[in-house]
Amino acid sequence: MARSNGNPMQAFPFFLILIFFVFLCGLPSVPAARPSPKPCKNLVLYFHDILYNGKNAGNATSAIIGAPAWGNLTILAGQSHFGDVVVFDDPVTTDNNLHSPPVGRAQGLYLYDQKQTFSAWLAFTFQLNSTDHKGTISFAGADPLMNKTRQISVIGGTGDFFMTRGVATLETDALEGDVYFRLRTDINLYECYDG
Known about the structure:
Layout: H1 12-26, E1 41-50, E2 62-66, E3 85-93, E4 104-112, E5 120-129, E6 134-143, E7 149-159, E8 165-176, E9 180-191
Antiparallel strand pairs: 1-3, 1-9, 2-3, 3-4, 4-5, 5-6, 6-7, 7-8, 8-9
């Protein structure tokens, strides 16, 4: 059996190295800058909303289905349209022309949710059925209408867009009173599955 000579100075270098490594392990690590993710798919589509106003039943693509006590179902309420709920089934095109052949439909609802300013909450799906894309893309989120561009979440999809996720940047690119608006929808998908 080996016997130690009892000199405490022999263990000192080992003890110093041990303390140094404990100190290093306790330091907070600085995260490396992550590069911005690149979208796996990008689409720019337009949807055209024509609100029923009591006179345009033939070409209206949306209707007020809920209104506050001071409103009605053919004219958007005052006070930033607060309390109005609108359902829609709008044509989706690849350019900003309402009369272009549609590549699908935008179907869902928006509700005006603030009294002080124009703001809405959106939940809708693009039902796409063209030679380029077949399937759905679902969206949900706040739409602060007074901002030039707004972002909402892409929360899923089917077909060519199976289980996709991403962000859509909305821009109101045409507005005709309370009856017609066109939204440019720049869709960046960051989770794509090829089937």
